[in-house]
User: Fold this.
Amino acid sequence: MSFKPIFFASPRLISLAESIAVLRERIQSATVQVAWIPRLRKDARVRTAHSSTAIEGNPLTLPQVRALEEGRESATESDRDRREVLNYFAGLRFIEKNVDIRPIDHEAVLKLHAIIAGGVMDQGTAGQYRTMGVKVGNFIPPPAHEVSGLMRELLEWWNEDSVAHSPVISSAVLHFRFEDIHPFADGNGRTGRALALWELYRRGFDTHHIFSVDEFYKNDRARYMAALEAVRKEGGYLTSWLEYSAEGIRSTLESVWRRIQGVAAELGKKRFSLTPKQEALLRLLDDKKAMAPREIWEALGVTRQGAAKILRPLVEARILQRIGGKKTGRYVRK
Assistant:
């Protein structure tokens, strides 16, 4: 038996898909020759980590989550809350690094869950499918002995049949079906939203990784939960859920477009196209947070003067910032 999503292309879903296409094209055109993509990517990463963990009850504020992403911590955060957010950042990095893997198998899903839920589970084991029954509100997911088989069917659909649908549809289908199976004892919400994001990335919908759909879900958590539950009340028909998810993507794109306009206005004439070396440097700083000048020119395989030419425009555009003294200075992302 294989998994086959049941839905129809309602007029509202078609209308939302058309407006999404227009907005995405506008954003894609605007980001072809701009230097602030890394800044938007960092902002999206922070908003996603904050929103997805907040949906599950994490009390950290957006500024606190942003501080954690930048390596700044305070005593006001509990160890568990801090770890939950840092785990999610690590999960997002895992997705970004593995965006092109084919196929995505059980091992990849288990690895992602192990990263996201490690050390913060109330029951069960991170990185392992559940061996117990669970209950989500009034909903009782499938028994534990069915989980592996149901996940196999979902992964087969994801790797083979999902391409027949637009990524807006396939990511929403994946999101719901994963939550419906509820394969883990804990951490299903965060992992399911991360998988939906992974689908948007691997299908090239969010090429620059600058969208944060989870923020839409977080802003009205009750409606998000009701939209998931509605599918079960409607006998498994996904149309209303797909409409809701498409509305979330449209809202997200509208927010991104406003942020692009705001950053463009702020930077004014400091627009330029990122060179391959500059893109490589920004990827390095995603992982290392800060790098000394020598580390930069050695990592990029350029001279000191070559590194200066790479760094200067990034600093002038306020994408990078130099911190520390003359001898101990390091470059960080703003």
Strands lie at 290-291, 320-323, 330-333. The longest strand covers residues 320-323. The first helix runs from residue 11 to 30. The chain has two domains: 11-265, 276-333.
